[in-house]
Structure to design on (179 residues):
């Protein structure tokens, strides 16, 4: 059965390593017959959440920027994938800001059930992505019908394009193919 897949890439660098993982995941999901959309936060205007919680009553944010359209796509996706570079052992600020601005989804009839997280970092130790993945899982845990079902980390990549030829790209493709 075909699923509606939304991938949010949060690196602000064009052709970033984490975005390449996202593209490979997308290619795998498309090959499996799913409807896939990849959104980059690179050129988006997304202001910080101000914590007013008006969205919990209205299911809308009082601020209007690019987060509105992205949040609407999140609402109607069956599967969400978040791709992030690791900065100081945590997810990118762009992804954290988008997740905060997705707060109106909490009280909505959201469709997503499966969430995946992809990450890259200069460091390559096994524990490098733990805090980033934990932060994403904390967001997912707020949605009782959803679950973080898969994570993928590629360490040891810093410069743009350094991930080229890395076996983790194939792993991302396979993860996307299996959803």
């Amino acid at each position: 059965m075909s699923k509606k897949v939304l991938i949010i890439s949060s690196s602000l660098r064009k052709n970033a390593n984490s975005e390449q993982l996202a593209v490979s995941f997308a290619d795998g999901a498309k090959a499996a017959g799913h409807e896939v959309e990849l959104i980059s936060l690179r050129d988006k205007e997304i202001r910080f959440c101000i914590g007013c919680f008006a969205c919990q009553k209205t299911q809308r944010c009082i601020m209007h920027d690019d987060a509105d359209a992205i949040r609407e796509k999140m609402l109607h996706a069956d599967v969400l994938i978040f791709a992030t570079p690791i900065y100081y052992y945590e997810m990118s600020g762009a992804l954290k800001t988008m997740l905060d601005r997705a707060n109106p989804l909490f009280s909505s009839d959201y469709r997503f059930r499966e969430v995946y997280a992809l990450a890259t970092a200069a460091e390559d130790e096994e524990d490098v992505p733990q805090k980033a993945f934990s932060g994403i899982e904390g967001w997912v845990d707020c949605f009782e019908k959803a679950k973080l079902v898969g994570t993928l980390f590629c360490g040891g990549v810093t410069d743009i394009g350094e991930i080229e030829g890395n076996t983790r790209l194939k792993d991302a493709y396979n993860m996307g193919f299996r959803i």
In short: The longest helix spans residues 17-31.
